[in-house]
């Protein structure tokens, strides 16, 4: 039997609440399949750890994580710890250190999920955003000069490499070719006269390698407008680190809310572990109350199944989430219900089990 070793970093706020439900689903799928299993190892890293130890993770944290097949992350962030510390000293360290250069964020309106847009069909919101995840605007390069003086100045440098741009674009094109979809590049070359002109140039070069794939290009402001006005025009979207971060939150807003927003940070070559996470944040005000929606963490668990080669089970989990959404008996307060976090997880687990019995 194949055993997948998963490092669990539940993190802060509602992270432990929602990850418990995702783990429940993964264990159910593995148990009912019978040919593989999961072994979960929990690490107490995050903001609470930082307040005690002065670090978000131990000095040898990356060496520890390197031994695992995947990382399952809950949420990072808590009052008293600045966001730039909680982000840059854990999440970004892992993404960059393990070369998780592909960030995959589905923007899909599930059956039964609420949508704030009028006159939009459910099938019109069905895209995946492929975000460059290792460089760009989040490279952390720059300088802060003359602090505390009238001459104070900061430089924030975005780093775009040919290797980085080519590999993320090829990933997007390969996905589009596999699924028979178009690729849309989102940039801002009219204002960012080095980085985004470079990005556009490489997109044109790579697109010639995939003549059968339909392509489109938008400036990021126009893309944001069309996400709302006409989301059906997008299928596979490829964009930079910053633009992808912003657009996928907008995507979550039109596709049921942040409680249904999942993300995968992939090292496609599998030299290092990939990381799977809900992207809704830590919401410390509702931590431990049972009000958190675990569906995003369950969706990210389905992405883990996809990555390990069990795409049939990944789809089955999404179908089970839709069953619960359509039934409307076990929904979190965010979705207009009164079910507790574990009750939503139990409902999805029940649907997963039922679907696996009848597959």
From TrEMBL:
Catalytic activity, reaction form: (R)-malate + NAD(+) = pyruvate + CO2 + NADH
SUPFAM superfamilies: Isocitrate/Isopropylmalate dehydrogenase-like
Cofactor(s) the protein requires to work: Mn(2+); Mg(2+)
Keywords of the record: Manganese, Metal-binding, NAD, Oxidoreductase
A Pfam family hit: Iso_dh
Top-level taxonomic group: Bacteria
One GO MF term attached to the UniProt entry: NAD binding
InterPro entries: ICDH/IPMDH (IPR050501), IsoCit/isopropylmalate_DH_CS (IPR019818), IsoPropMal-DH-like_dom (IPR024084), TTC_DH (IPR011829)
Its EC number(s): 1.1.1.83
Isopropylmalate dehydrogenase-like domain: residues covered: 5-348
NCBIfam families according to UniProt: PRK03437.1, TTC
UniProt record similarity statement: Belongs to the isocitrate and isopropylmalate dehydrogenases family.
UniProt-recorded name of the protein: D-malate dehydrogenase (decarboxylating)
């Amino acid at each position: 039997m194949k055993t997948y070793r998963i490092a669990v970093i539940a993190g802060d706020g509602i992270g432990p609440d929602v990850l418990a439900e995702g783990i429940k689903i993964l264990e159910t799928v593995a148990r009912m399949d019978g040919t593989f299993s999961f072994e979960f190892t929990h690490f107490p890293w995050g903001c609470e750890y930082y307040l005690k130890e002065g670090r978000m993770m131990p000095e040898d944290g990356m060496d520890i994580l390197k031994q695992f097949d995947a990382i399952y992350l809950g949420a990072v962030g808590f009052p008293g710890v600045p966001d730039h510390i909680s982000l840059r000293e854990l999440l970004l360290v892992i993404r960059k250190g393990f070369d998780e250069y592909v960030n995959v964020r589905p923007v899909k309106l599930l059956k039964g999920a609420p949508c704030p847009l009028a006159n939009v069909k459910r099938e019109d919101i069905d895209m995946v955003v492929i975000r460059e995840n290792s460089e760009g605007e989040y490279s952390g390069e720059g300088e802060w000069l003359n602090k505390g003086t009238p001459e104070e100045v900061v430089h924030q440098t975005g780093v775009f490499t040919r290797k980085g741009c080519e590999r993320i674009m090829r990933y997007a094109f390969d996905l589009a070719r596999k699924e028979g979809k178009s690729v849309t590049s989102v940039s801002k070359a009219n204002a960012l006269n080095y980085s985004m002109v470079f990005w556009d140039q490489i997109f044109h070069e790579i697109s010639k390698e995939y003549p059968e794939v339909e392509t489109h290009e938008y400036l990021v402001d126009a893309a944001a407008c069309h996400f709302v006005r006409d989301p059906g025009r997008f299928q596979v979207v490829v964009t930079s680190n910053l633009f992808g971060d912003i657009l996928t939150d907008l995507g979550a807003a039109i596709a049921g809310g942040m409680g249904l927003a999942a993300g995968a940070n992939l090292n496609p070559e599998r030299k290092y572990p990939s990381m799977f996470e809900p992207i809704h944040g830590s919401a410390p005000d509702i931590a431990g109350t049972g009000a958190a929606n675990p569906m995003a963490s369950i969706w990210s668990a389905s992405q883990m199944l996809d990555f390990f080669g069990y795409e049939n089970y990944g789809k089955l989990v999404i179908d089970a989430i839709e069953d619960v959404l359509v039934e409307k008996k076990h929904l979190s307060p965010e979705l207009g219900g009164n079910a507790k976090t574990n009750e939503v997880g139990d409902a999805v687990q029940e649907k997963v089990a039922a679907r696996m019995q009848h597959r």
